[in-house]
Design brief:
The chain is an all-alpha fold. The protein is about 75% helix and about 0% strand. The chain has four helices and no strands. The chain is globular.
Length: about 70
């Protein structure tokens, strides 16, 4: 279920699921010191999704995990 939702978000679906991803990502970026404000984090998260960077990063993680599975 979660994988389908994430795929739909990466495909451009708007709505409350995307909003939750943006808010959570924004908070994580702010906590890590990568952005100065939640608003800046929301913009960065939206750009990562809209540019395809988030999808590419997830694909690399999946590839790495599959390669190193014991």
């Amino acid at each position: 279920h979660n994988a389908r939702l994430l795929t739909r978000i990466f495909d451009g679906d708007a709505g409350h699921h995307r909003d939750l991803v943006l808010v959570n990502t924004s908070a994580a970026l702010a906590t890590a010191g990568r952005v100065q404000s939640l608003a800046e984090g929301m913009s960065a998260a939206a750009e990562a999704i809209d540019s395809g960077a988030a999808r590419r990063t997830l694909a690399r993680l999946v590839e790495f995990t599959n390669r190193h599975r014991k």
